[in-house]
Specification:
It is built from 5 helices and no strands. It has 131 residues and is mostly helical. It is elongated, with a radius of gyration of 20 Å.
C-alpha cells in the first residue's frame, strides 16, 4: 500500500530527503476530538446542573441532585479546562481561541457550539494537507 495515501503528504516530491516544514507536514486532526468531547460533556453537565438539579433543590426540596451533579460537573469542567490548556500548549488553538473556549464554559449550552466549531475546523484542510 502507498504510505502517502495513509499519512498524507510527505513533502513536495513525496518521501524525499527535503527537510520537513510546517507547510509540508500533515495536519493531525485527532487531537481536537478529545477537546470536542470535553466541551460537550462540560456543556451537558452544566445544563443538567442548572436546568434540573438546582430547580429540584430549590423548588422540590431535593438537594440530592446537586450533591450528585455538582461534583460530576466540577470534574467535567476541570477536564475541559485541562484539555483547553493542553490544546493551547500543543499549538492546536491560538491564545485568543483558548480564551473564547474558556469563557464559553461559563455559558450554559455554549459548549455544544464550541464542539460544533471545533468539528468544522477539524474538517478543514490543515497546513500540510493537499486538495
Amino acid at each position: 500500500m502507498d504510505h502517502r495515501q495513509e499519512g498524507g503528504s510527505h513533502g513536495p516530491g513525496g518521501a524525499g530527503p527535503e527537510a520537513a516544514t510546517v507547510e509540508t507536514l500533515p495536519f493531525d486532526r485527532r487531537p481536537l476530538q478529545p477537546l470536542r468531547m470535553a466541551a460537550v460533556t462540560e456543556a451537558a453537565t452544566l445544563l443538567l446542573l442548572v436546568g434540573i438539579a438546582v430547580p429540584l433543590k430549590h423548588l422540590g426540596d431535593w438537594p440530592g441532585a446537586v450533591r450528585v451533579l455538582g461534583p460530576v460537573h466540577g470534574f467535567a469542567f476541570l477536564a475541559y479546562v485541562w484539555m483547553v490548556l493542553r490544546s493551547l500548549s500543543a499549538g492546536l488553538v491560538s491564545r485568543d481561541e483558548a480564551m473564547r473556549l474558556a469563557v464559553a464554559a461559563f455559558v450554559p449550552g455554549a459548549g455544544f457550539l464550541t464542539a460544533r466549531s471545533l468539528g468544522g475546523r477539524a474538517s478543514q484542510p490543515g497546513p500540510g494537507d493537499r486538495p
